[in-house]
Amino acid sequence: MAIGASGGKTSSLVGCPKGTVPPHREWDSQDRKVFEQLGLCAGIAEETYYAAFLSCCLCLFVLPLEPYIYIRASIFKMASCMATGTIVSLAIPILAVKKVYV
After folding, report:
1. Which residue stretches belong to region Disordered (predicted)?
2. Per-domain boundaries in the chain
3. Per residue in 39-59, pLDDT tens?
């Protein structure tokens, strides 16, 4: 355990994030087959992987709807925009999920 800047103990595994998603395993023929069946170019595979990663994070940690733990289409669309660099405001969806009214 290490002492954090605020004086509290932090795990040695917790560090300053670099802001990048670590590389994933190589795409195998089964992975590529899905994109071929959908008629999508191979270049979009990385973007789709990143959008799926963001969707999981958003659905589990930012916009959870208990007791349902699944990726919702609206969240995947938002994550797809984020994966392409489009700025997306999460304030309204978070307030709606948390049922906080101003």
Report:
1. 1-25
2. 27-98
3. 877 778 788 888 888 998 888
